[in-house]
Amino acid sequence: MSRYFKTFLLWSALTPAVAAGLPEPVAKGLRDAKVPQSSVSIVVQEVGAGRAALTLNAASARNPASVMKLVTTYAALELLGPAYRWKTEAYVDGDDLVLKGSGDPKLNYESFWMLLRNVRARGVREFRDVVLDRSAFTSIALEPIDDELFRPYNVLPDALLVNFKSLRFVFRPENDRVRLFVEPSLPGLEVINSLRLSPGACPDGRAFRDLTQATFQSRPPRAAFTGLYPASCGEKELLVALHHPEDYVAGMIRLLWSEMGGSWKGGLREGVVSTEAKLLYAHESDPLAEIVRDINKFSNNVMARQLYLTIAAELGGVPAHPDTAARAIAQWLVFKGINAPELVLENGSGLSRNERVSAATLMALLQAAWKSAVMPEFVASLPVAASDGTMRRRLHGEPVSGNAHMKTGLLVDARAMAGYVLDRSGRRHAVVMIANHPNAPQAEPAFDALLQWVRARGPARANPRDASPQRP
To answer: In 3D, which of 431, 436, 425 has the Cα closest to residue 448?
Structure first.
């Protein structure tokens, strides 16, 4: 058992008043949301301190939602290194073009265009078949976690995942109609626009999609919008993962290759790189440190899943399987001295009904990360309160604004956060809070209150900007 885990169990056992005595604003936020304290775990501990300042149900295993990404990203930074890069390779095999993926989480439109542009620049003008080598990852067939089948966050891992397999539909009021265009505009995609302008306020999220009465199908690819569009919305966009993976890649190649003046005479099929194939070009991804920033700042589930399987591929070999990643991370935690018997990993993103971790384990992870060589990359990946990522709209105008680096998580029955807060005396605290309850999404004021309580701890430190300059 690690010293961190022992600390939390001992502290909870010896000081029950601490567990019971939540700061009143936090307790009130939970009461208002009708979330019982028995459904909540909290740990607050100064970085490097020997014991926690506040604990509540620290050892309870809970669903942390997207906060689980901290486990995956910190493990990846240490196991793979911040400079790790993925390679997507293009080969020529006779008359065929072979594309081999390694799981690049950010092989976006621009990157894929660059890959094909480099193939064209090396003298290739036409090919017969395109062969997709996606053998680095095990094929995984999972049902989406909700009924949002066509939402990009439900896209499954793929060793050759291009542009998140997504389309961006852009809506724009023009005069008395709604203009609609899509990027990329893939061959064979049918788009029906029967939207009508209307008065009224512009809704967000699911309400916006419901208002447009959007319907989708994959084969043949078709998107239809037949509802109302409030003029007050201005220009808005909707991301949709409509195509099957192989159909999307084929569409992207046909679109971009024809723009480059190339010719594709055959079809597309699955395969592996043969011994006769000649490597033509290898596209390298952004370094892992930048990928981790995208994952944590914006809570990108698809990228987190790709990274999770990359850990499996690098430590256990290909084809990568989620179980291999879970074992590799468990072994890494043992090496770090973190005992986490309650930890359950499924896909490493937190988009799961099964993943579990305790606040004690997350606290041990945050304390270890602060002392790690990859601490700068890890902390810089966390959203900053009232500034960016998933925290950009929270706590504006409050003292904790700009002073908290917090990863957040949200499922229909889970709310969580974990990260670091700088108090007003200049001390840094690690903070973890998880709520698992049907009313958890309504408990955000309690989470914000905890951050403000931590920020207010200790005597105020003088603001250097208020000091008068000293004359020599």
So the answer is: 431
